Amino acid sequence: MKHFLLLSFLFIFNINFAQEAKIKKEKWHWNNGPKQDTVIGYAQVLKVDNVLYISGAVTTELTPAGITAVYNDLKASLASYGATFANVVKENLYTTDIETMKKYNNVRKKFYNGDFPAATWVQVVQLYMPTAKLEVELVAHLPK
């Protein structure tokens, strides 16, 4: 009888205090189309609680115009949930030419208006899109 009571208690405790197995994910993808790309297998923006995880935006031109295009795409991703660059807390930047990216860093900095996030910059041999020279991904927090 003791074992039955103990097992019953553990079962009820587990049901009442176990964490939810699934997290709530909201997704946004370009042009108000499907919420995710099923060919490659990603969503452009994934929102969990008050955090936005933004997939990389890319350019084939490591020029001021190309860098501006990347950050304008990221701006659209942020705006999909009412956020701006002021909400960004982490930036990961991948480039095939770190020295050129350093040279044009002023283009990137304008989007942050002096409120810079934690950032990691990495030079890589190749990005997913073989002709891409820059890919930037973001993590942003929305107010609770």
From TrEMBL:
Signal peptide: 1-18
Pfam families according to UniProt: Ribonuc_L-PSP (PF01042)
Keywords, comma-separated and alphabetical: Signal
Statement: the UniProt record of this protein carries the keyword Ribonucleoprotein: no
Keyword Signal tagged: yes
Protein family per UniProt: Belongs to the RutC family.
Cited PANTHER family: 2-IMINOBUTANOATE/2-IMINOPROPANOATE DEAMINASE RIDA, PROTEIN HMF1-RELATED
Protein name: 2-iminobutanoate/2-iminopropanoate deaminase
Organism: Flavobacterium collinsii
Species classification: Bacteria, Pseudomonadati, Bacteroidota, Flavobacteriia, Flavobacteriales
